[in-house]
Amino acid sequence: MTETYPRNALVTRPLALVLGASGGVGGAVARALSRRGYRIRAMNRNPEKQARKFPVYEWVAGDAMKLEDVMAAAEGATLIFHGVNPPGYRNWQKLVLPMLDNTIVAAKANRARILFPGTVYNFGPDALPEPKEDSPQSATTRKGRLRIEMEARLREAAWNGTQVILVRAGDFFGGTSGANSWFGQMVKAGKPLGSVTRLSAPGIGHQWAYLPDLGETFAALDARARELPSYANFHFEGHWDEDGSAMIEAIRRVSGRADLPVRPFPWFLVPMLAPFVALMREILEIRYLWRTPMHMKNDKLVAFLGHEPHTPLDDAIAIALEDLGVTLPAEDGARQTSAA
């Protein structure tokens, strides 16, 4: 249930700065925190544009690479959600650490805690197939090594008095920004659903995180932050696709097309494009996650919260397709009939 607040209550509501509120995970966390009583401040290079899309938030102009902007945006915040990434994977190695450092400085200055979405990239082959929260991190990829350094800096921040709550999750789906996700490679945003793309090798499991569930998980952990240590990390299980077919079959069920064609992802093109396209280089580095199963279980999370927020897969898929503007076969037929 969405909570409402009288105008004079706004000054008493705690303030959360959400960096990346216009993105998938940041947007989901912002909505979940807002439902739990937070006033949301969001920073963006184009706040006027974002304010038209999300008018309930307080939008301020700023760049996560500029410490003075982050400091100004964080003034008065009791928590900062750090969900910003370089656009289009450009200059990743030069930007992600300075952006995180700015968040850490701002959090310390305001005595705010940090919420941070982790990834599976930290783990190397020695931690597979079921890495734990405290498994050794020996990533072999550049992106993975950067993620290891990010977590190291967050642990140092926690050691110095800034509380950090970190949740690692699989690939995201759900939300309007999903076109830039792996789910957006399975179906095409804004297009009729004529086929679905298989991403993994046959029989290889994969882990998916439905963003509204992940956002609620962050909010639930934040609500009990006083019970957590200065550095708390959890694994979010989400939807574990045991053999790579569960997501495909769910899309088929939701579409009402049991015979919906399945096409393989053109992995053979990735090495050819990688020298020229930054995104393809990033995809090539993490291809192993579609060839080798990696299953992060949520035992620690469930032991603390008592449950993990979990939307049934078919319901999550139906909403995710709608979020992307994907036209289902029955809808497309109805539109054609209406037009005739």
Automatic annotation (TrEMBL):
- A Pfam family annotated for this chain is NAD_binding_10
Q: Which domain of life is it from?
A: Bacteria
Q: Coiled coil where?
A: none
- Occurrences of domain NAD(P)-binding (ranges): 20-113
**What SUPFAM superfamilies does its record include?**
NAD(P)-binding Rossmann-fold domains
Gene Ontology annotations for the cellular component aspect, listed alphabetically: cytoplasm
For this protein, the record's InterPro entries field holds: NAD(P)-bd_dom, NAD(P)-bd_dom_sf, NAD(P)-dependent_oxidoreduct
GO terms assigned for molecular function: aldehyde dehydrogenase (NAD+) activity
Name the record gives this protein: NAD-dependent epimerase/dehydratase family protein
Q: Origin organism of this chain?
A: Martelella lutilitoris
